[in-house]
């Protein structure tokens, strides 16, 4: 097979007259693809930076460990059954609001909606 240049209108072997050749068309197309790829890459990077800067700073995680002898038996220090969901009860949340000085600014219901409690192991 010989190297023949095919212009945009199908003429062969370098017939010019201002006609675009096949190689020129391919190079223009690849140039556009590179620009599109670069744009998509920059868009993807911006999305991940936005995710890290906007979404994740609004989320905090705390791991709580109980360090007293009855904890291994699932008991509180006064030997009653420990229930981690009691952390979201109204009396506990009211004390949190009071200690933080947020009386009148945050309700216990609003605070409870912002907290999730889950076990880390079973």
Helix and strand layout, with pairings?
Elements lengths: L21 H34 L34 H11 L7 H6 L9
What does this entry look like structurally?
It is built from three helices and no strands. The protein has 122 residues and is mostly helical. The chain has two domains: 1-59, no CATH class; 69-113, no CATH class. The chain starts with 21 loop residues before the first helix and ends in a 9-residue tail after the last helix.
Radius of gyration: 33 Å
Order of helices and strands: HHH
Largest sheet: none
Overall shape: it is elongated
Query: Total strand count, please?
Result: 0
Helicity range of the residues?
A: 40-55%
Structural class: mainly alpha
Low-confidence stretches: none
Number of domains: 2
| Average predicted local confidence, pLDDT | 78
Number of helices: 3
Distance between the termini: 70 Å
Proportion of β residues?
A: under 5%
Keywords:
122 residues; mainly alpha; 2 domains; 3 helices
Summarize, please.
This protein is mostly helical and 122 residues long.
């Amino acid at each position: 097979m010989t190297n023949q240049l095919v212009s945009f209108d199908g003429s062969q072997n370098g017939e010019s007259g201002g006609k675009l050749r096949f190689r020129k068309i391919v190079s223009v197309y690849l140039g556009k693809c590179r620009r599109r790829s670069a744009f998509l890459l920059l868009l993807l990077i911006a999305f991940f930076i936005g995710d890290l800067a906007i979404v994740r700073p609004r989320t905090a995680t705390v791991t709580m460990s109980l360090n007293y002898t009855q904890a291994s038996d699932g008991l509180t220090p006064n030997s009653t059954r420990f229930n981690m969901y009691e952390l979201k009860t109204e009396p506990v949340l009211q004390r949190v609001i009071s200690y933080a000085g947020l009386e009148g600014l945050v309700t216990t219901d609003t605070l409870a909606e912002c907290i999730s409690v889950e076990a880390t192991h079973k």
